[in-house]
Structures are given as C-alpha cells and as structure tokens.
Amino acid sequence: MSAVHTNANNPTGHKPGVRTEESARQRRHRLRNAAGVALGGEHRTAFCGRRRCAETVTVHAKENGRASYRGVYTCGSIWTCPECASKISAGRGKEVGGLCCEHVKAGQACYMNTLTIRHSLGDDCGQLRKMLSWAWDQVLRSGAMRRVRDRFNIIGYVRSLEITHGAHGWHPHLHVLWFARDLSPEDEATVRAALYERWAHVLERRGYSVAPQGFDFQRAYNAEQAAEYVAKWGTGAEIAKGASKSGRGGRSPWQLLDDADHGCERSAGLFAEYARSFKGARHLTYARGLRDLYDLEPEAEDEQLALMDDGEAPEFEKGGELYRFDKEAWLHVVKAKLTAAVLLAAEEKGTEGVDALLWENGISPSVDRPPEPFTGRVRVLRAARGTTVTNQGGVMMELRALSKEGEEKRGVYGGNHG
Predict the structure, then answer these.
(1) Type and span of the H or E element at 274
(2) Which of 53, 112, 222, 332 could be disulfide-bonded to 4 (CB atoms 3.0-4.6 Å)?
(3) 170: helix, coil or strand?
C-alpha cells in the first residue's frame, strides 16, 4: 500500500511569492498545474499529465536518454498547457523549417511581417482577437493584396497568432511569414509599404489603427530564423520568461501563469480570460496548397504533435520500461507535484532512483515492478532440457513444443522428480 506522510522535500514545491531555481521541465509541469488551478478542475488542462487513461502509469526511456510517461491523459492545448505547447511548437518548428529550406533551395526568400492593432486597457481580449482575425481575412481577400502577390510572386504564407498583456491591456498580434521570390531592396520596400497601407486601411474601416511601432517587415536570413519567428509560442525560451518580469512587450500568458502561481490573483483572472477568448482559435495556419508545392506532408494537428514527442517507447526487451505506478502510488505522486522529479530520477538512476525519490517524499514505492531488461542471454530449464526460455522479465516466453509423453519422461508433470 502507498501512503503519503509529508512532502516537505518536494523538489518541485515552492512557497507562494518566492521564485526558486528549477529546470525547464519542472517549470512546465509547475505552470501546467497552475493552469489547472486558474481554469478550474474540469478544464482539460487540469487533467493533462495527471489523470490516468490506462490501468497502469509507466515511465519509459526513449532513445535520446529522456524519460516519458505512458498511460496518462494529454490535453493537446497550445494555448493553456505549457507542456503540450512546448511539444507542439517543436513539431511546428520542424514543419515550417522544412518548408523554408525547400523554398530557399528553389532560389526564393522568406519575409517576416508583424501585424498589430492599437488597443487600450479596457479592451476585451476576445473582441481584440476576433478583430485581428477579421482584419487579416480582409487583407487576404482584397484585390490590392492579390495584385501585390502576383507582382512579386508571393506564393503563400504561414501565419501565427500570439498575445501579451501589458500596461495598455491585451496586445494580440500576428506573425506572418511570406514566401516570395528573392526581392531586391527596392522591391522589398515596395512590398513593405503596400502591406502597411492595406493593413491600416482595413483597420480604419472598423475604427482601429496600427499600434505604434506595431508593423514590421524584414527578410529572414535563414530557415531557422524564419521557423522560430512563427513557431516560438511554446518553446522553452518563451516559457522560461515566466520566471522573470516582463519587458517592453508585456507579459505572455506563461508569465501570467507564473505570477498567478506565486500568489497574484489578478494574473490568474487574466489567464482565465485569455483562455476563454482563445478557445478554438488556430495558432498557426498555412496558405492553402503551400506545402503541396514542395510535395511535403500535410501539417499535423496539435493533438498529434503533443503526443508525437513521447511516441512508442522502446520494447520491454530493450529496457524501455523503467517504472510502474499502481493507482494509489500515482495519485500520491500527482498530489505531491512530483511528476517532473520522477522523470529526472528515472533518467539518472532508473527504478532505484524513483524509489528513493518517493521514500524521500514520504511515499511508499509502487508494488508493481517493471520487467527486467533483456540481457541478450538465454537459459535452459533443468526440468525440460533443450527447451529455451528468452529472459525478458516475463514479457514473452517462447517454449519449444513438447509432447506430453516427452514431458512426463522428463518429470515435468507429477511423477518422479528425483
């Protein structure tokens, strides 16, 4: 039986209002817990990485030496879950990076374009997000934009949506990566002016304007820079900013979460407002047919990317399974907020490391044990000579077929064992 006596030694715990050193993984897991608190116990992020979706929760080793869970629920939300957002952004970065590489190989170029709207402290988050999406749609539909795209051979775009909160309220903005021919400095200036004019005109129709210093257009000098520009939302660097105060651009939702987790109720309320406003919104969109031009696979869904990082763990005979949690032990791990610490312990010292971590935190280790890793050797049963058993910790046993008569002669069934 598992029991919790104390979590005083919890390496991921912290006192309200006190910021402590932690790893990137510990930060993501902590902020995911904070998101569940801010959004309420029934929100899908509150279950992510905590609720079992299988009879047994297991820890597995991946080929890169990292450990991951299997048998736990994954929410797949890029907006509210820092853990899923990190995995999704990594997948998007590879997708966009591959597209940019193919485009550059063809002798073309990518251009980074930032689009914002002027806002004030009292503006509603959801209304601003809808206004931004409407304005973008109007720009794409306009005849002026079609003429610019035809003239400068702009074959498509990748667009991402982001938001921060600062002294002047919510600040939603678009990062657009345009795929065009290699423009001369003069043509680049012409495209920049045309895009600004069209964006400003659309906003003015609804009583808005371009935010001060809220428009930018410049060339991406390599595929990595271009991919990071539109797919950095959930990257480790972005989430890590939650550990420090915001700069000129305001606080990201991850920073709001961090402040909420350190006792700021207003930040928790702002994060909840943001989550409601961005529910169902697409973070990253491709121009139709853009990936088909280079014979690339269609973009994956967010939920696919959130699960892809874990993938299929190596088979048991390769030593892939490091630890098994029974129901009660896993419940106590979740309550003690040890999900990140367990993975680190498994990576460093395997099963024994997880056991030691649980004992340190007053939790009796799970009674379930993982199978022994395959050693590459076989053994012979004395009672049935010539019958080999693959030593795979009970996962798989292969016995050579023997007739009952032959087995009886060897003393396997009843009879004389002397």
Answers:
(1) helix 265-278
(2) 332
(3) strand
Nearest to 162 by CA among 59, 284, 23: 284
- The stretches of 124-184 forming alpha helices (DSSP H) are 125-141, 143-151
Q: What would the DSSP string read from start to end of 85-124?
A: HHHHHHHHHHHHHHHHHHHHHTTEEEEEEEEE----TT--
Quote the pTM value: 0.81
Quote the tokens at residue 401. Answer: 């077929």
Tokens of 73: 């629920």
Tens digit of each residue's pLDDT (9 = 90 or more) over 59-77: 988 877 889 999 999 999 9
Question: Which residues make beta-bridge pairs with 390?
Answer: 378
Taking alpha carbons only, the member of 361, 348, 378 closest to residue 3 is: 361
Q: Which of 162, 157, 192 is CA-nearest to residue 176? A: 157
Cβ atoms of 31 and 257 within 8 Å: the answer is yes
Q: Is residue 142 exposed (0-12), middle (13-18) or buried (19+ Cβ within 10 Å)?
A: middle
Distance set, CA 381 to CA 85, 96, 130, 400, 418 (Å): 51, 56, 71, 11, 16
The string over 273-283, giving b where at least 16 C-beta atoms fall within 10 Å of a residue's C-beta and e elsewhere, is bbbebbeebeb
Encode pLDDT of 139-165 as tens digits: 999 999 999 999 999 999 999 999 999
Gap between the Cα atoms of 317 and 390, Å rounded: 10
Dmax over CA atoms of the chain, in Å, equals 98
What H or E segment, with its residue span, contains residue 67? strand 67-70
Compute the distance between CA of residue 189 and CA of residue 289 in angstroms, rounded to an integer. Answer: 27
CA distances from 356 to 64, 154, 339, 345 (A): 24, 59, 14, 9
Report the distance separating Cα 138 and Cα 199, nearest Å: 9
Alpha helices in 279-338 (DSSP H): 302-308, 327-335
